[in-house]
Design goal:
Layout lengths: L1 H14 L2 H26 L13 H14 L4 H16 L2 E7 L5 H8 L18 E5 L2 E5 L8 H13 L2 E6 L5 H12 L4 E5 L7 H14 L6 E3 L1 E11 L5 E11 L1 H13 L1 H47 L13 H14 L6 H30 L11 H25 L5 H13 L3 H14 L1
Parallel strand pairs: 1-3, 1-4, 4-5, 5-6
Antiparallel strand pairs: 2-3, 7-8
Helix pairs in contact: 3-10, 4-10, 10-11, 10-13, 11-13, 12-13, 12-14, 12-15, 13-14, 13-15
Length: about 450
């Protein structure tokens, strides 16, 4: 019927005027476009975008107390909140000062605070630790040179950036690859940033303009660039009339006012917003440290649970005839182990979901039990006087390996997926069984021999 209808329309279009065919084609296209529009609006599922919710400070402090009662090491998170309270009380604006070795950070602070008697070293840089200096209502956080950054120092520097209101980045030329890598990380913090081109008096005006343009282009023209000179001394090598090379030390005058003006402009623009943004960043940092401490505590607690139930499985299997393929023999222990791990991560799976995990594990063991027994038997050979021991001890070692593999499979599921997924758990369980650790088998064998 559809074919007949289409042929009839085609026949009528052949006999109709051209304009009728054009109008008909336009109508068909409009209907098609409208159909696609309806699909995207009404039918196609929209991606779920999780909005970053602001951290509630009272909830964070309450959660910190709860986790401390559990035994979680909350020292770092608590210290972060104490630092936040301290900075709020002072009412100062914190400036994180970045730059490569000998870019002029210490010279800048010396020019800013001549009474501090800051030492400088043009060869190796001066700042090796994080130091704070006071200027009016500004606290200048002098960070180590980028060249001295390792993973630990870089993390400390980024943490200090999150605690600060504004970032100042000193450079004495166009950005290097090292500087661009750090700039990229600083941009992720969303902090206001001021770029300072130090030693600008070494360049002609046209050269200054080219460097400033390059710096702005590499940062998408989002940040102001201040031309400064932090002063100090420099060695100049020149050639006299006889062609002989000579050296002389030249004193450069300091001019840091353009940078101070840029900082003051950023701070004065909206200090209340800067304070709120700083508070939010420090709360996020405290939450992150609490999450890390909680994750470490949960991981260690989960390992203890797995170890405990593995020992129980070894002890219970000493009287078993055969391991593995009938894991239901120790199904109660397996169920309790899964429940304990899930409860630790505040996951409440239904009993049928736990049963599915146990059942799938039992099915997988039907094809893997010989491998597990072989590894268990080889582990026993490491003990003099036991040799090719068989029977209950071998079965006990095998059961220990099974429970260890199952426990870590469940742990992998709840930590990576946030739920007890039977298929993912079964896949990881299979991987754990196919790659058993010899050292684990030997430890379990030692445990089983003590019991026997």
């Amino acid at each position: 019927m559809l074919t007949e209808k289409l042929l009839s329309i085609w026949h009528y279009l052949q006999e109709a005027p051209l304009w009728v065919s054009v109008v008909y084609a336009v109508v068909i296209m409009a209907v098609a476009v409208f159909g696609v529009y309806l699909y995207f609006i009404l039918i196609k599922p929209k991606p779920i975008v999780k909005k970053l919710e602001p951290i509630d400070e009272s909830s964070l402090r309450g959660s910190l107390e709860q986790q401390e009662v559990r035994g979680v090491d909350v020292a770092q998170a608590k210290a972060e909140l104490q630092e936040l309270d301290k900075r709020r009380g002072k009412g100062e604006f914190y400036i994180a000062l970045y730059g490569t070795v000998s870019s002029g950070k210490s010279s800048f602070i010396r020019a800013l605070l001549p009474e501090q008697n800051i030492k400088t070293d043009v060869l190796s840089g001066t700042t090796k630790t994080i130091q704070t200096y006071q200027y009016k209502n500004l606290a200048i956080i002098d960070l180590p040179g980028l060249d001295d950054f390792d993973e630990g120092i870089e993390k400390q520097a980024i943490d200090e950036t999150l605690r600060a209101h504004v970032v100042v980045f000193l450079t004495d030329s166009d950005f290097t690859q090292t500087e661009m890598r750090v700039i990229a990380k600083l941009r992720k913090t969303k902090k206001p940033l001021v770029i300072a081109l130090n030693k600008s008096d070494r360049y002609r005006e046209d050269e200054q303009a080219l460097i400033v343009e390059a710096l702005k282009n590499k940062t998408e023209k989002k940040y102001p660039v201040a031309l400064i000179s932090t002063g100090g001394q420099e060695t100049i090598i020149y050639q006299d009339a006889k062609g002989k090379q000579n050296k002389k030390v030249q004193v450069r005058n300091a001019n840091i006012q353009p940078l101070l003006s840029s900082i003051e402009k950023v701070v004065a623009n909206n200090p209340e917003i800067l304070n709120r943004f700083r508070d939010a960043a420090m709360l996020m940092l405290a939450q992150q440290k609490l999450n890390n401490a909680k994750a470490e505590f949960n991981r260690q607690s989960a390992e203890n649970i797995i170890s405990s139930y593995t020992k129980k499985a070894v002890f219970g299997a000493m009287a078993s005839v055969a391991p593995g393929s009938d894991i239901v023999i120790q199904g109660t222990l397996a169920t309790k182990m899964v429940q304990s791990i899930c409860a630790l991560y505040e996951i409440s799976p239904k009993q049928m979901e736990i049963d599915a995990v146990i059942k799938m594990a039992g099915s997988k063991l039907k094809t893997s039990v010989s491998l597990v027994l072989a590894v268990a038997g080889n582990a026993l050979k490491a003990f003099p006087g036991v040799g090719t021991a068989v029977g209950g001890v071998t079965h006990a070692v095998a059961y220990g390996m099974i429970f260890n593999a199952l426990g870590h499979a469940v742990l992998e599921s709840v930590t990576t997926l946030g739920t007890l997924d039977a298929l993912a758990t079964n896949k990881k369980f299979e991987e754990n069984l196919l790659g058993p650790a010899t050292n684990l088998a030997k430890d379990l064998a030692k445990m089983a021999l003590k019991i026997s």
